[in-house]
Hints:
Number of helices of chain A: 25
Oligomer: heterodimer
Low-confidence stretches of chain A: none
Low-confidence stretches of chain B: none
Number of helices of chain B: 6
Structural class of chain A: alpha/beta
Shape of chain A: globular
Order of helices and strands of chain B: EEHEEEHHEEHEEHEH
CATH architecture of the domain at 146-348 in chain A: 3-Layer(aba) Sandwich
Distance between the termini of chain A: 99 Å
Strand order of the largest sheet of chain B: 2-1-5-3-4
CATH topology of the largest domain in chain B: Alpha-Beta Plaits
Largest interface: A-B, 30 and 34 residues
Mean pLDDT of chain B: 93
CATH superfamily of the domain at 146-348 in chain A: NADH-ubiquinone oxidoreductase 51kDa subunit
Number of strands of chain B: 10
Amino acid sequence: MNRADLAAMAQREQDRQDAFRCRVLCCASTPCLSSGGTAVREAIEKAIKDGDLDADVQVVSTGCMGPCSRGPVVTLKMRGAEDVVYEQVTPEAATRIIQEHVAKNEPVKEFVFPNDAPFFAKQHKVVLANSGQIDPESLEDYVARGGYTALAHVLREMKPDEVCESITRSGLRGRGGAGYPTGIKWDLVRKSQSDKKYVVANGDEGDPGAYMDRSLMESDPHRILEGMAIAGYAVGAEQGFIYVRGEYPVAAKRLERAIRAAERRGLLGSRMVDSQFNFRIDIRIGAGAFVCGEETALMASIMGKRGQPVPRPPYPSQSGLWGKPTLINNVETFGSIAPIILNKAEWFAAIGTDKSKGTKIFALAGDVNTTGLIEVPMGITLREIVYDIGGGIPDDRAFKAVQTGGPSGGCIPAQYLDTPVDYESLRALGSIVGSGGLIIMDERSCMVDVAKFFLDFCADESCGKCAPCRVGTVQIYKLLDKITRGAATLADLETLRELCVMVQETSLCGLGQNAPNPVVSTLRYFYDEYEAHIRKHKCAAGVCALNEKPMSPAVVAPPRPKRKVARLDELEAV
Amino acid sequence: MAVVTLTINDELVSAQEGQTLLSVLREHGIQLPTLCHLDGLSERGGCRLCLVEIAGNNKLQPACVTPAVEGLVVRTHSDRLVKYRKMILELLFSERNHVCAVCVMNGNCELQWEAAKVGMDHVRYDYLNPSLPVDASHERFTLDHNRCILCTRCVRVCDEIEGAHVWDLMGRGANSMMIADLNRPWGESQSCTSCGKCVQVCPTGALAQRGSSVAEMEKQHDFLRWILDGREKNVWEYTDAKSN
C-alpha cells in the first residue's frame, strides 16, 4: 500500500460513512459496558429495526468518550448537524432517542449532555482525538481520520535524525511519569551503535484509579502502532513490543487485531507503506505485577525472566532488551507522535507551558461530580480540573486534597488548587504528574488512612529484590496502621519520617524510591491530622477506629535531662 | 585496559577501567558491608548496604554494580550512609526470625557480623515474626526460611557455577520465598546434585549442614575462586584461603 492507496482508502470509508443520514456511536469501553452499555446497544438496534431505519442509520461501537461516571454514553452524529452526546442512557431512553431524535429530529432533552459544558469545552483533545469517534476494530475508520499519513510522510520525506529533531522541538516529554524529554531519548537510541535495536511501548498501567493507557489502547490502537513505527524508523529498530497489562484483555485483543489488519494492508511489517523500512510489532502480556511498569523490570518480563528491576545505569538506550539499545516509552507518548508529525512540532509546542508542552490525559476519580477520562493542555489549574471539568465536589462538600501520580505521587491540599498542572510545578509541591491519575478527596477522607491505603498497595506490589523497599514499605505500613489504631506515640512519627526518607534514598527502583511519597506529602501538608490522631486520639474525618492505646503510659516521653559526663582527659587534668 | 583515577574519601586512587567500585574499595582497604555480593557470582545490587555517594549524582549508587570511571568522586562513610546501613540491617533483622542465640551460624553469620560492625545493637522496628517453615527433607542439608534474607546467592551459585538452577524465588515482596524446583521439598528435587555449594555461600543460617547444632556451622567460600580459576585461567592450585 502506498500513499495514494491510503488516500483512496480514506476517501472510500468517508463516502461510506457520509451515505448514512445518522450514525449512532455507542461507547463500548469498560466503564460504559459495566453500567449497562450492552443492553443500550441492543435496544438501539431493536428500535432501528422496528422503525425501519436500517438503511440510513449506522450503529458503531466506539472507545471511551470521556464522562465515564455518566455512562452509558451515546453520541448521535446527524448529517448536517452538530454531534449530540447522551448521558446515562437506559434501554428505554435509547429507544426514545431513536424514535424521537433519529426518526423525528427531536432531541430527547433530559438525557442530553450539553456540548458546551465545561467538561468538553475545557478539554483539548490531541491524543484522544479519535477516542469515542471511531470503531477501534476498524482500520478503515482510523485511516479515514488521517491515520497512517504521518507514518507515510515520515518514511517518504524525512530522515531519521529529522524525526528525532522534530520530536525534540515539539517539547514532548515522557507521559509515563518521569517526564524525560522524548526527542532526546529517541536521539540517544538512534546514536547507539548496534546491529539490532528495539522499541517498547509500556502499557503496564497499574496505579489505583488510573486507566488512561487502557482507554487509549482500547479506543485507538492504531495510533499507538503508528507512533511506534515512526519511532522505529527514527531510531533504526525493526522490532517493537507492546507490553500490555494482564488485566487488560480487551486492550490486548484490540491491539492484536489492529496489528494484523495493518500488516495485511502493508502498513506494518516488511517494506511497509512501499518503503525500504521493515517494522514488526508483537504483544507481550504481563502477569499482574505492578513493578513491571518499571522499565528494567518490564524488559526482564519481555525477555521471559522474573519481573524484577535491575540497577541503572546502564540505561535501556545503551543496553536494554537482550543487551541491545532499546527505546521504551509510555503508550500515551507514542499516541502523541502522529499529531506532532502531521501538525508540525511548533503547533504542539504552542500548547501548554514553557517547559511542559502539549496535552496530558488524566483519569479523574474520587469525590467529584463527573469522573472520567480527560485530556487537557499542560498548565491548566487544578481548580479548573476539579470545579469546571469535574463539576465540583458532590453535595457541595469541601475539597480536601487531590492525589496526583497514584501511589508514587503525593497529595496537593486546597491552598494549592490554583497551581498549574505541569511537571515542575507539581514536583515543587512534592508530587508528580505521574502517569495521570487524579484522585479527588473531600473532607470525609482521613489523610493518614489515605497514606495507609497507598502504602498497603506498595508493600503488596514490592518485588522483594531490595531490602529497603521489601521490608521498609511493610514497616511504614505498620507504623501508619499503628497511628490509625491509636496505638502510636509521637516518637513513632519521627521513626516514620526517618524511615520514609531512607526508603526513598536507598531503594533500587522507582517503585521503592517513590513508595513513601504519599506519607511524606501528607506529613508535609496534614501534619496536624497525624498529631491529632496521636495526641488527641481524634480522626477528624471519622474514618480511623482509634480504639487502642499506646503501650507506654505517657504519650510523649519527656526528654531525659542530659548529664554532663566528664571525659577521661578532663578527669586526669583535675 | 585503561587505568583511571578516582577520588575516594578525598584521596586519589587508581583503578582499572570497568572494575567495580566495590573491588576498588576493597583493594584499598575500605570496608563496606555487603550481603548479596560474593566474589565469583554475578552482581545483584539488592541488599543496598554498599551504597555510596557519588558527586554530581543525586542518587546513592551501589558500589557492587557501579563501574570505576575517570574522575569519579566517591564518599563511602558519610553520616547519612552509616545511618542508612544501620537502618537497612535493622529492617533485615525485623523481617524474619533471626534469633542468633539458637542459630547454627551464631558467631559465623555474615548478617550478624555486619550488624556488629556498624554498631547495630537493637532494632527499632516491630518484628514481623512471620510463620515460616523449615525444609529438612534433604538428606544432607536443611533450609530454614526463618533465617533467609533473600540475597539469592544460592540461586546464583546453583545457576552460574553448578549449572543446576535448583533454587529460585517464589512470590514477591515480603512474601518472597526460596523454592527448590517448582516449589517441592528440597529432598524430592530432581535437579539438585547435592553439591552443597548453596549451603557454603549462604551468609546466614538459612542453609546449613544437617545435624549441626547452635554455632556449629562454618562456611567456606574459597571453593568458588578455585572453580573459577580453574575454569577461566586453567589454574588448578588450591591455595588455602587463610594464607591468602
